[in-house]
Design the sequence.
């Protein structure tokens, strides 16, 4: 209730403020163009969805180290981190495989996207992005499975015809983790063809956390010792600087190529090739775990994480009876990831390796008939998963078999879907939206060997289907006002990770396969307002309520009549993913923009999310992945050659009573009371020192606060000085 009162107060005083301001301003309208809502360009003011955009200019000025930090900088996306090379976005309380990542029209989510925390967004090179669109709320009509919390659509730069030879480069250094990043891209545009290529290399050292702690938690986050191998023995080494998070550094390389061939005005061919790879990525949170006063693990890291994508896209804009515009996208992805771990004082190092091949086909079309705008399309996907594992004795180099993360006989998923949407616009004031999608899915996993786990089944098969839809209404009585209501549904089909994984989630708790798992569904109700007051102040607000039915949750389970099993030398409780509960998520988002002059502007946003599981016997318990209240405050000054920003990111308290103790909230990495509230003070500038040369300077976390994002197993960087030099070639 207090948030509704607060919102009403803002709405009440903003008209007064705008009337009292005499500064001149150009006419400002709600006319941004977005693509993510329906695969083709649309005016944001006509859409009932909440959509946020990050432009290439914003990406360059904010100068984040990676794509996860880029999203975090908006204040609209919450990001969890388990290690320095981590970053798991959360949209409206949904995370990991319950949000959809898309790049250039190709879905990144694959058959082993897990339900805990994911760092796959880091495989996107933000230096090569033209813009990023964040579509909040269930979006399954256009995008299909996984889009429960929304869609993050990354759009890479496109080479321009007739542009000649151009290039850009930058180098960056950050003090908090001794980051060293270099980037270069070159493009050439001819009459009918163009090319753009880019390369980025980043080396990130160990993250130094802030030194200024709350008096109640004077040692929170300190790393007093860390594991090390010396003279063939595991030892716990005393950390000379407990604020240095030893074992959090990693490196990354990104390659990018895009070719355009446009033989005629109405036809364009695009070939897109992307490759990203890392060095070893230490799992910092696991390396800080202690058992009997000693490190639990001597080693725990992700091996090189590799993402290869190649796609062909055909754009057709010559109107005919079937479409005004159409787009065909065919893509292939090759993903490799591995987990390497070894217990402290144990010579056997386990390696689990996953290789995933993904084939996708999308056809999308648009046809305008009178006041109606129809969009329709088809999507087909196929995933092939191969999982292997072995142990290596670090003393003798002897190799032996080990339990795989996924069924060792191989796993496949497939899907085919059709969708149709319609937008009816009346006098450019009323915009009615409706859409429907039907999806057929299939999954097959084979347990080729039962050497390590005597499962009571040889394979797992599923062939579910799902029907989803949406209906929305937008009222725009003037260019400065927009009111919208929306009902939308979403679904997520269990993937290989949900259905057939064997995984130790926490010490003493083992997740095993459950063949009886079925899809989970969401039903979302949403209202929104966007209003300019005069030409100075803009308010955007949205409130939503999402019901979750047949929610997939991890709970106690029995296997062969047993509730416990020995795993890696530990008697572990058996758990499994199950459709056990119904839940709900409700929240509110408020954004305020104040244009004080042509050079000075102020922005603020706040997000409040609440999620509860409905218990069978009545009452509720906290739903996991729900962030505390969070947001951003910013003041920006800009002229022709200079830009400066002072901003603050903030999080409210997440009390331990609001944690889901059996889920993915990671209470073991918080204080006994939960995760404390925090706020940072930051400043950055960009100066054009020459026509083709600019210098960027920043100081992040000026007050050197020690803090962690909720559910994170690593503390955020302390005071961080950033220097960047950018050049146009």
Sequence:
């Amino acid at each position: 209730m207090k948030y509704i009162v607060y919102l009403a107060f803002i709405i009440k005083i903003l008209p007064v403020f705008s009337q009292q301001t005499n500064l001149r301003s150009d006419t400002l309208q709600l006319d941004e163009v977005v693509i993510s809502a329906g695969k083709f360009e649309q005016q944001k003011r006509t859409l009932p969805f909440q959509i946020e955009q990050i432009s290439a200019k914003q990406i360059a000025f904010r100068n984040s180290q990676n794509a996860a930090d880029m999203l975090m900088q908006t204040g609209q996306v919450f990001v969890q981190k388990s290690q320095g090379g981590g970053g798991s976005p959360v949209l409206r309380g949904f995370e990991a495989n319950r949000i959809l990542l898309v790049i250039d029209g190709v879905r990144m989510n694959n058959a082993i996207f897990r339900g805990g925390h994911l760092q796959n967004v880091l495989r996107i090179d933000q230096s090569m992005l033209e813009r990023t669109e964040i579509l909040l709320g269930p979006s399954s009509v256009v995008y299909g499975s996984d889009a429960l919390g929304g869609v993050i659509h990354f759009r890479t730069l496109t080479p321009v015809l007739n542009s000649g030879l151009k290039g850009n480069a930058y180098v960056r250094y950050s003090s908090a983790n001794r980051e060293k990043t270099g980037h270069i891209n070159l493009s050439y545009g001819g009459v009918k063809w163009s090319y753009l290529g880019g390369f980025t290399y980043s080396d990130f050292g160990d993250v130094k956390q802030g030194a200024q702690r709350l008096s109640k938690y004077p040692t929170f986050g300190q790393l007093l010792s860390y594991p090390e191998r010396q003279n063939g023995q595991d030892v716990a080494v005393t950390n000379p600087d407990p604020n240095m998070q030893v074992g959090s550094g990693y490196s990354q390389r990104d390659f990018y190529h895009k070719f355009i061939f446009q033989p005629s005005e109405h036809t364009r061919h695009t070939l897109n090739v992307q490759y990203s790879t890392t060095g070893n990525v230490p799992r910092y949170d696991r390396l800080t775990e202690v058992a009997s006063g000693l490190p639990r693990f001597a080693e725990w890291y992700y091996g090189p994480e590799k993402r290869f994508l190649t796609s062909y896209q055909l754009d057709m804009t010559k109107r005919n009876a079937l479409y005004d515009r159409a787009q065909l996208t065919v893509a292939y992805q090759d993903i490799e990831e591995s987990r390497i771990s070894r217990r402290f004082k144990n010579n056997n190092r386990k390696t689990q390796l996953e290789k995933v091949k993904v084939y996708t086909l999308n056809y999308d079309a648009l046809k305008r008939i009178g006041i109606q705008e129809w969009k329709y399309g088809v999507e087909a996907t196929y995933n092939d998963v191969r999982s292997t594992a072995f142990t290596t004795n670090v003393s003798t180099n002897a190799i032996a078999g080990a339990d795989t993360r996924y069924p060792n006989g191989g796993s496949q998923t497939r899907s085919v879907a059709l969708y149709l949407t319609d937008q009816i616009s009346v006098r450019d004031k009323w915009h009615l939206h409706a859409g429907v999608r039907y999806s057929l899915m299939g999954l097959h996993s084979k347990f080729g060997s039962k050497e390590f786990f005597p499962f009571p089944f040889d394979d797992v098969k599923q062939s579910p289907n799902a029907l989803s839809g949406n209906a929305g209404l937008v009222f725009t009585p003037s260019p400065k006002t927009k009111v919208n209501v929306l009902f939308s549904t979403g679904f997520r089909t269990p993937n290989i990770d949900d259905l057939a994984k064997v995984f130790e989630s926490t010490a003493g708790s083992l997740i095993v396969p459950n063949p009886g798992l079925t899809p989970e569904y969401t039903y979302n109700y949403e209202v929104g307002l966007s209003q300019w007051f005069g030409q100075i102040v803009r308010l955007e607000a949205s409130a939503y309520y999402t019901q979750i039915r047949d929610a997939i949750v991890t709970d106690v389970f029995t296997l062969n009549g047993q509730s416990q099993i020995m795993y890696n030398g530990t008697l572990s409780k058996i758990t499994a993913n199950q459709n056990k509960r119904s839940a709900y998520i409700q929240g509110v988002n408020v954004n305020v923009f104040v244009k004080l002059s042509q050079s000075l502007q102020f922005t603020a946003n706040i997000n409040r999310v609440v999620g509860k599981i409905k218990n069978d016997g009545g009452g509720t318990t906290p739903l996991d992945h729900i962030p505390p209240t969070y947001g951003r405050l910013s003041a920006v000054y800009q002229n022709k050659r200079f830009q400066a920003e002072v901003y603050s990111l903030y999080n409210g308290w997440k009390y331990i009573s609001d944690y889901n103790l059996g889920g993915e909230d990671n209470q073991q990495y918080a204080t006994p009371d939960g995760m404390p509230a925090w706020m940072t003070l930051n400043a950055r500038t960009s100066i054009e020192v020459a026509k083709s040369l600019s210098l960027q300077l920043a100081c992040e976390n000026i007050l050197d606060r020690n803090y962690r994002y909720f559910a994170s197993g690593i503390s955020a960087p302390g005071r961080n000085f950033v220097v960047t030099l950018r050049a146009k070639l």
Notes: Residues 1-29 have pLDDT under 50 and may be disordered. The first helix runs from residue 2 to 20. The radius of gyration is 26 Å.
